[in-house]
User: Fold these one by one.
Assistant:
Number 1:
Amino acid sequence: MSTHIGAQPGEIAERVLLPGDPLRAKWIAETYLKDARCYSTVRNMLGFTGTYDGVEVSVQGSGMGMPSASIYAHELINDYGVKRLIRVGSCGALVESLKLRDVVAAIGSSTDSMMNRQRFDGLIDYAPVADFGLLRTAVDVAGQQGIEMRVGPILAADAFYTDRPDLYDRLADYGVLAVEMESAAIYTIAARYNAQALTLLTVSDHIKTGERTTAQEREQTFGQMVEVALRTIIT
Ligand SMILES: O=P(O)(O)O[C@H]1O[C@H](CO)[C@@H](O)[C@H]1O
Ligand SMILES: O=c1cc[nH]c(=O)[nH]1
């Protein structure tokens, strides 16, 4: 067992999908994985391993925000030997060209988190980016599946409820498509420990129009993103 994951050595696959919501992890395991078994219920942050098209894949809830996601990414890589992580999350759209339920692949992740500033003594604005190989595969897979996936930069924010919506508009002016809360930390930790990482997102709400999906949809209806993620992670 690691500190926050209750799996025995060998119970977690080298390939892991990372939804923030542990109940989305359960839904993904039950819907898409064969012979899925739960390996951890610690803090109810559920984790499952099964197979997808004959390849072993795990799905681990990572919680909300970069401190939580950092713990799971760190332990998965360092304590369980995970080599590939694909976050499958929800996001808020910052640009009008995105619609509710669109799928986004995050090529890079700006952040207002202090975590990386601490890593580099405040001297470097480190640029967390996706693994190029995983991103290229995801683009190919989405094309083959007829899914229109937007590829671009996103924001990983510490706060869900912002006091500075004006900054979202400014980021949109610089091409930033959407906001979520984990990608920068996952990209950074994967880079630090020599693993591959990618973030795929489904637009769950629209910052410009105020439209949003329900909690049930965020838990259970992001099938297109999950199918791209699963095919990508086993390729
Ligand atoms: O749907 P998940 O994967 O949790 O992702 C998004 O949803 C949560 C906020 O509602 C944050 O974790 C954010 O990143
Ligand atoms: O972090 C997030 C996730 C979904 N929607 C948002 O507005 N922010």
Number 2:
Amino acid sequence: MKSKTGVLLINLGTPDSPSVSDVRSYLSQFLNDPRVIDIPWLLRKILVNLIIVPFRAPKSAKIYQKLWTANGSPLLFYSERVKTLLEDSLGSDYEVHLAMRYKNPSIPAVLETMRKKHYEKIIVLPMFPQYASASTGSAHDEVMRVLRTWWVIPEVKFISQYYDHPLFIEAFAERGRKYNIADYDHVLFSYHGLPERQVDKVHDDGACARHDCQHTVNEENQYCYKATCYATTRLLAAKLNIPAEKYTVCFQSRLDKKWLMPFSDEVVRQCGDKGMKKILVFSPAFTADCLETIIEIGDEYQEIFHEHGGQKVQLVESLNDSPTWIDCLRDLVKGPANK
Ligand SMILES: C=CC1=C(C)c2cc3[nH]c(cc4nc(cc5[nH]c(cc1n2)c(C)c5CCC(=O)O)C(CCC(=O)O)=C4C)c(C)c3C=C
Ligand SMILES: [Fe+2]
Ligand SMILES: [Fe+2]
């Protein structure tokens, strides 16, 4: 008997609507995750529920209102498109489901639908190219929490990262080729930030700084987010012939000062202060455009650059529903090309 394989695509999640109450509920679920705010339980409850969420929710809701389109949140819209396109591309032996780590469609609800399908095998595929405990780790953790309650546990494959997959790199390079890179004074590769202690914890000696993560990926640091962000950048820069002196790797969306450096907003400021007029920004930790790309890079960094004498911050569109991105996901599910 030939049974189907169920593929579970997982993205980060987005509020149900841009209202303050829905944004509050989203932030509360997100920031109470011990893999996201990795501090002792009581401290996290106080910090998140009494300080961060009450202050942040009204401000974030205003930003989400700017982001929202007739199709809703871009992150959810593009993730749903990818689900449909990947299912078409995989053919009849596979069924693809989409869940969000926070809010909806939730991982428990989607897994319950999948349980009733009696798949022989489930492939869990988070839409994060570089592993971080706060993104991929958390998605896997939540899937395992639910699967633990099942009586029948089928074969399960967890895909943890693909920061160097040739089709992932090619899909981003294609996005970059829409722009004449020679027209830009500088190129930024701006990744979502992380607290330094979260990358420290990947290393056996608890200190990312003692390793050469900026330049090499090896067995010891292969799940260090900083190392894989730099590795993605090197591959993309090589593909697009961007010399080392023309680009900077930086980290955005920090919540405090002890996050990975350099900070993207400060690099944008420095580019303006140096007299640069046009900068091109890739954001290869995100596979779908979202608040962090459209608003933070497209609007907020544009404003900072302008205030510092610059003219244009050009965001390179994320992978969204790119055919090469779909080929990459198909390859991750099926194994190397045409298997
Ligand atoms: C690469 C993937 C992501 C990692 C790693 C990640 C870590 C991380 N994020 C926060 C705090 C926030 N992130 C927010 C939005 C957001 N984050 C990601 C991805 C990763 N986050 C995405 C795709 C988005 C956008 C979602 C959307 O709806 O478009 C937000 C909410 C927005 C805001 O209020 O600014 C917060 C907060 C932390 C603390 C963290 C790791 C410790
Ligand atoms: Fe985030
Ligand atoms: Fe590291």
